[in-house]
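Aggregate trends can hide what the representation actually does to any particular protein. For completeness, the protein is quoted in full, as a sequence line and a line of C-alpha cells.
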Amino acid sequence: MGQEDHHAPGVGVPPRGPAWPPEVSCTPSQRDAITRTWTFQGTVISGAQRPVCRGPIVVGMDPGLILIFAVVWAATGLATGLWMMRRGHDARWLVISVAMGPLFVPIALERVERRPRLAASGPGGIPAADPERLREPRVLIGVDGSPESEEALATALHLFGSKFETLVLAEVVSYDATGHEGRAADAAFDDAMGRLTATAARLGDAVPASFEVLAGAPGASLRRFAKEQDMDLLIVGRRGRGLARLLGSVSADVVAHSSVPVLVVGPVSTSMPKTETRDAPGQNQ
C-alpha cells in the first residue's frame, strides 16, 4: 500500500515516515491501530492511523504460565494420590490422580476408606483370650514375605519357642485388592493368602498359628487388629527404605500409636537381630 505525505502548516514537506508494518494475525496484547509520527524541525507530526493487524484473533499464552499451570495440576494430583496410598489404597491410583490433577480430589474423598477391615481368615480363626487362667502370650506378627518380616517371625520363635497361647500371622493388602463390594480380588490378595498359608504350614503342629489378611493402611490395620484381639505383643520388621519413607514407616507408626506393646526387629544381619521395644501406655518398660 502506498504512503501519503502529510504537510505541517507553514513548513515544507516533512521527511517520509516509517513504512507501515505488514499485516499480521492479531493477538490480544496488540493494539488495534498505529499512528505514524515524524519529528521535523523539533515538531512531532502525526500521520494517519492504520490497523496493525487484520483477521481472526489468535489467543497466545505465556509458556511460563503454561508450565506453572502444568506443575500445579500434576502436583495436586500427586499429593491426592499419595494421600490415598497412605490410607491403604492401591498405588495404581497415583497414575490416575496425576493425570486428573485437581479433578481427582472429589473422587478421592468419595472413594477413600477410613477404617481398616478384615479381608480373610485362615482355617479355624483366632481363639478367644481366656481371662480365667494365667496364660501364655498372644502374639501378632506382621508379615509380607520380605526378609525383615521373616526375621520378625524368627525372633518371635527365638524368644518364645512354642509357648504361645495364640500366634497370629497377619498380612495387610490395599483395600482395592480384596474384591470388596463386588469387585474381584486381585493378585496381591491371592499372593498374601498363599504366603500366609505356606508360613503356617511351615511352622507345623509344633507352633500352631492362625493367619489373617487385613485391608487398609498397614500400620493402622495392625494396631487396630492387635487391640481388638487382645494381643499381648505386636512384632514387626523394620524396613524404612524407598517408598516406605515417603508413605510412612509401618514400624514407626505402630511404635508411636499402638496401645499394645510393640517389638520392632531390625534389618537382617549375620549377628543377633537388633530390636526395639515399646510398652503400651501405663506399662513399665
In short: The longest helix spans residues 63-86. Residues 151 and 269 are 9 Å apart (CA to CA).
